[in-house]
Every structure is written in structure tokens, then in C-alpha cells.
Amino acid sequence: MMEIALIAHDRKKDEMVNFAIAFEHVLKHHHLYATGTTGTRIMENTGLSVHRFMSGPLGGDQQIGALVAENKMDLIIFLRDPLMAQPHEPDIIALLRLCDVQGIPVATNIATGELLIKALERGDFAWRELVHKYKPGIDE
Fold it and tell me: Which reaction does it catalyse (predicted)?
């Protein structure tokens, strides 16, 4: 089971809900996390269970970032709105930086998200189990 975060900016929330509906058959086998409203909308429109953090601007991105920093997140789908300024942009950049530091796959658009989910479905993320097994200080 993988730990997967689903995050979407306001104008991308419908797209994330449609993504979750389309890939519910894959996502239901994993632990899901999301920021506030995104998580609520996914649960309202699917049968998925989602652990919800605070809304992104209120610290949700940082809460997910804390899991990334501890290498306890395996995949992030973050549908960003590149055409709208975000008041919490520094938090977003910090989250993406942490993903790079820890080698966590992150998609920032629907096309890459679909590629990563299809790879997950094929079993291409088994290497993350080795990361957890051999990384010092990582508790299962």
C-alpha cells in the first residue's frame, strides 16, 4: 500500500474529483491524504476514504510536506493552477522542494498524474517499498 496525497487548487478541484472518479479502482487500494476541501469533495463523489489535512493556505501543504520530509509519502498528485497567484506560494515551493530532496514522485498536472497512477497500477512503484525497508528511522 502506498501513501498518496491529492491536492488541487480551487480552479482544479473539479478536475481532481474527475481524476479520483476515473482512477477510484486504483486509489482504493492505497492510503489517501488530501488538503481540506479537496479531500471532502473526493469523498463526496467517490467511495474513497481520505485523511484530510487543513486547507492548503491554512497549513495543509505544510502538513503533507512534514510527511514528505520524513519520507512517509510515496506519491503526490498536486493539480496546480499556473494562471492564478497563490497566497501560500512559498509553502507550495517548499513542498515541491521536499519532494525533490526525498525523491518523491510528484505530478503537477493531470497528464503527469495519469501517467503516475497508471505506473502505480502496473506495480512500478515497488521500489518505494525498498526505500522504506532500508531507510534508517522510517517506521512502517
Answer: dihydroxyacetone phosphate = methylglyoxal + phosphate
For the whole model, what pTM was predicted? 0.89
Most confident range (mean pLDDT) of 76-90, 103-117, 119-133 is 103-117
- Order of strands, edge to edge, in the sheet holding 106-107? 50-52, 31-34, 3-8, 75-79, 106-107
**Would you name the residues annotated as active-site residues?**
61
Summarised one tens digit per residue, pLDDT across range 21-53 is 999 999 999 999 999 999 999 999 999 999 999
Assign 14 to helix, strand or coil. helix
Which residue ranges make up the annotated binding site for substrate?
A: 9, 13, 35-38, 55-56, 88
74 or 138, higher pLDDT:
74
